[in-house]
Amino acid sequence: MRVRRISSLAVLALLAGAWAQAATLEGMVPRHLPGTISHFVAVGEARLHVREAGMGPPVLFLHPLLNDSRIWAGQLRGACAGRRCIAVDLSGHGWSSLLPGEDLSLDAYADEVIGLLDALGIDEPVDVVGFSGTGIVAALVQQRAPGRFRSMTLLSVRFIDDDTIGEAAMAAGRQYRSDNARLLIAEGRDALFRRFAAYIVAPDASLAVRARYRSMLEQTAYETIVAFMLARDVSASPDLLDNLHLPVLIPVAEADPIITNERAQEQLRRLPQGRMAMVEASGRLLPLEAPDALNEVLRDFWVELDGAGTQTRLP
């Protein structure tokens, strides 16, 4: 019987191929988005995955929680002419490192964003785009580090007035999130996707939009989803709006059940430099469902600020 000998280099090659395949299957290797570069940045104990496109004044995109930087694919492709666009996977999301503990904190994410800007060597005010919970993260950064942002865009960000909503409604919200955590553990991300897709994605959204949303949710670690569901600070008081002394844009999707025209108008009354832009025929996932319309709104906003000669260096 002849025994086939395999060289050590061949063995290493086979092992490397097997590892690469396993890593891809386990989500360890970032999926490439055309027209972007992908790299990792160390921020404290975290290892954050970052996508970048374009060159020029910096723009930072913060994905909604339980999603990742892929939600900004349309913006990295279509809104970055003459700008350096940066989209990060926050801890516990996408291809970044896991949460450092069992808790998910918007305050901790605010520190992470500040650390990211420092690690990237960005010493000029940034145009930041926050979505849902990360809009609150952006507001927290502005509160503790004024001057890091030139402008802020808030997509479907809910600032809750406890006195108006009432304790019963607040308790019902906490119970809903707790039920979702139990559903996740019992039935997996698939059950959670079906529940969320019923109101987060517009009824006429394409299969491609639904596929991207599902991919991002399924990439999110179970521990992160549970931490999000059980977190106490997934919303913020309207008082936080009073500290936003910078240009703020609120794009409103026509079919967004969270931030309606009326709720956006309520927020604008607390924003001395706020403005609103309506985007028709889109649900809450505006960057995926209507990327071109959102890109136009963003570019117009930034170009207007460019023309106004807003601050270009930190004090």
Provide the gyration radius in Å.
21 Å
Overall outline: globular
If you average the pLDDT, what whole number results? 85
Indicate the CATH topology.
Rossmann fold
Number of strand elements: 8
Q: State the CATH superfamily name.
A: Alpha/Beta hydrolase fold, catalytic domain
Q: Which spans of ≥5 residues are poorly predicted at pLDDT below 50?
A: 1-27
Q: What is the domain total for the residues?
A: 1
List keywords for this structure.
Rossmann fold, 44% helix, globular, eight-stranded mixed sheet, 12 helices, alpha/beta, 315 residues, 8 strands
Plain-language structure description:
With 315 residues, the protein is α/β, with parallel strands linked by helices. The chain has one domain: Alpha/Beta hydrolase fold, catalytic domain (Rossmann fold, 3-Layer(aba) Sandwich). 44% of the residues lie in helices and 16% in strands. The protein has twelve helices and eight strands. The protein has helices at 8-25, 73-78, 106-119, 133-144, 162-165, 167-187, 189-200, 207-219, 222-230, 261-268, 286-289, 291-308; strands at residues 37-43, 46-53, 58-62, 84-89, 126-131, 149-155, 248-253, 274-279. Strands 1-2-4-3-5-6-7-8 form an eight-stranded mixed β-sheet, sandwiched between helices. Strand 5 (126-131), helix 4 (133-144) and strand 6 form a beta-alpha-beta unit. It is globular. The N and C termini lie far apart (78 Å). Residues 1-27 have low confidence and may be disordered.
